[in-house]
Amino acid sequence: MSALTRFLGDTPLRVLLKLLVVSFLVGLVMNAFGWSPIDVLYGIRNFFVDLWNLGFRAIDRFLGYILLGAAIVIPAFILLRIANYRK
């Protein structure tokens, strides 16, 4: 078995034939949906951008909850510390 055959997993001609068949089927499906290769790339990019933004929105919401709670907890803590300081 040659190094090329071992690398490809089959003989080069059979691999080429398989790739042609799969390329035809993928092209057929993409044409049916009206997709182009650039649409696929934009879709992948938009997926990661949306994922990135979703992560930061979640952090923003989490920090918002902390600040909302701190608006009550910090003044109450200070008042309790002042009240206990006199004793």
From TrEMBL:
Q: Where is the DUF6460 domain?
A: 51-86
* InterPro entries in alphabetical order: DUF6460
Going by the entry's taxonomy, the superkingdom of the source organism is recorded as: Bacteria
Pfam families xref list:
DUF6460
What keywords is this UniProt entry annotated with? Membrane, Transmembrane, Transmembrane helix
Transmembrane stretches, start-end: 15-35, 62-83
Query: What protein name is recorded for this chain?
Result: DUF6460 domain-containing protein
